[in-house]
Amino acid sequence: MTAFSDRATSSNTANLAHSLDWIDAQLPAARAELLRLSSLNSGSFNVAGVNACADRMAELFAPLGGSAERIELAPFRATDDRGEWRKRPLGRALRIRKRPDAPLRVFLCGHLDTVFAAEHPFQIARVVDEDTLNGPGVADLKGGLLVMQLALSALERSPNRERIGWEVLMNPDEEIGSQGSAPLLNEAAKRNHFGLIFEPAYADGGLASSRKGSGNFDLVVRGRAAHAGRNPQEGRNAIALASAIAVQLHAMNQPDAGLTINVGYLHGGGALNIVPDLCVLKFNVRTETHDDEQRLLDVVNAMLRTANAHEGHALELRGGFTRPPKPVSEGTARLQSLLRASGQQLGIELSFRPTGGCCDGNNLHAAGLPNVDNLGVIGGEIHSDREWMRVSSIAERAKLSALLLLRLAAGESQWS
Ligand SMILES: [Zn+2]
Q1: Protein residues near ligand 1, an ion, with CB under 5 A
Q2: Span 356-381, mean pLDDT?
Q3: What letter does residue 256 receive in the DSSP assignment?
């Protein structure tokens, strides 16, 4: 029995306690499921793996009812080493909707993909100890998919469920920036009241409050090839110019002011007796405000104008800010306080703090949807082969989201 049920007095609270105990009882099955899901590779570009993961999730959600759809996404576009656009296919998104006309509509989201490609050595989940699993995506985000499924299952078992409609989106491309699923996130933001995203909580159980914005840029620098010994003066060295720009970009870092720039990729050249005519440079920018975005674009564009004025060079900038900063809006603050209250009922003191990371919560905020985005399992060292998660947090966090929904459904708390 949960601590909460000790205080149960009315039939409503008894119902709530019953739902929460039901979640606890599902933990062993959820743990076994997570071990299987983690060992099923779903690197962002492993289309078959991502689709297989969606198939399994569709099976797990089937008992909840709702209408499920598989949605094809536009291919992922990126600049290749020749400076050309390269398109790569993505797996399908899985969307499930139930009671779309209910008075209160909630959007729940989690990604199917992981950062571990099919060729990556980290493929199999393992049990570290009674309460800890290590495996690809155990925290980010497959554990969260199970939290979401359990929370909604608890709602569907409640007599008050009719008051809440829900829309679930499992997208295949969050780890590569949600380029393809961005339109689905925007659609969802327009027809729901708030969003719950199941990214992992911090290792201490805390959640993110504000998030920085992020932009990815590709710079294609072209020059002119020439023989390095016979006529180097006729060449225009693309690597030298790209490197000068890389140094300037790096110098623009202002971590204290919340602006960071990471030159993460530089590729060009080949034979050492040829002046290289092509260099591809890629960088990521993190910002705290929309003004920072504009300020940075102004500086970068001025830099490019100067570089483009060099005879024999041509530069092309691609990409942009795809995830605007996510400050804590009024709606998000309200959602945080409802979650805090649910946490207290479960004996969990929830804390919120800012992060430089970003996720689909940024997209939802930009589209006007209040949301909290670390409602998945407790874990850490994500994006590395040391990724771990707390098994018990599957039930703990499912109860947290379930209690939020059940209290709203019972009219014990109000959205607005
Ligand atoms: Zn994630």
Answers
A1: 140-141, 199
A2: 95
A3: G
Contact 102, 164 (CB under 8 A): yes
Task: Map tokens 């499921």 to a residue.
Answer: 33
CATH topology identical between 4-210+326-415 and 213-322: no
H helix or E strand, kind and range, residue 361: helix 360-366
Query: Tens digits of per-residue pLDDT, 147-187?
Result: 999 999 999 999 999 999 999 999 999 999 999 999 999 99
For the four alpha carbons of 37, 39, 44 and 50, in that order, the dihedral sign comes to negative
End-to-end CA distance of the chain: 32
Ligand 1 centre to CA of 106 (Å) is 20
For residue 386, the CA-to-ligand 1 centroid distance in Å is 15
Q: How far is the CA of 293 from the centre of ligand 1 (A)?
A: 24
Q: Top-level CATH class of 4-210+326-415?
A: alpha beta
> Token pair for residue 365?
């905020």
Architecture of the domain defined by 213-322: 2-Layer Sandwich (3.30)
Pick from 259, 309, 314, 256: which is nearest to 284 by CA?
A: 259
- In angstroms, the CA 373 to CA 105 distance is 17
Answer whether 307's CB lies under 8 Å from 222's CB. Answer: no
Q: What are the φ/ψ torsions at residue 210 (nearest 5 degrees)?
A: -85, 155
pLDDT in tens, 56-90: 999 999 999 999 999 999 999 999 999 999 999 99
pTM recorded for the entire structure? 0.92
**How far away, in angstroms, is 214 Cα from ligand 1 center?**
15
Residue 87 to residues 49, 78, 90, 179, Cα–Cα distance (Å):
19, 7, 10, 12
Domain chopping of the chain, boundaries: 4-210+326-415, 213-322
Task: Provide the 3-class DSSP secondary structure of residue 191.
Answer: helix
Q: In whole angstroms, what is the distance from residue 356 CA to residue 304 CA?
A: 27
